[in-house]
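Write out this protein's structure.
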Amino acid sequence: MTVLVRPLTAADLPTLVRLEGELFGPAAWSPEGLADELVGPGRWYVGVEQDGDLVGYAGLWFDGYDAQVMTVGTQEKFQGQGFARLMLDNLLARAREVGAAVVLLEVRVDNEPAIHLYESAGFERLGKRRAYYQPGNIDAWTMRLDLRGEPP
């Protein structure tokens, strides 16, 4: 088994659209939204491949001070195998590289595997955003990882 984490490109868009729909259903980002994210200012997206097939993706936005984890998603049959951790580690390395002070994210309050992943990486819960995820009015935890004071 060969696993590779790599930057995403516009050529990955058809697979991203399919994965986004499978993972997030009615809450999935539109094809146009995904395309914009890949090339947007301050955005950085990676994908994880297993044996040449894209099975997950993750994105970061840096605004010049803070970084925001925009998304982390792994194809269902590959969940629980460490791919999300690989992608998150890449996003956090990028945040450190660009000099982010903190990394922020939102996660569904009912997504226990993701909450565990983020907490195990050092993220802390800041508070709850009511009805953050639409459709469905699902609450989200806002989480933060403070990078200030880390050794360079």
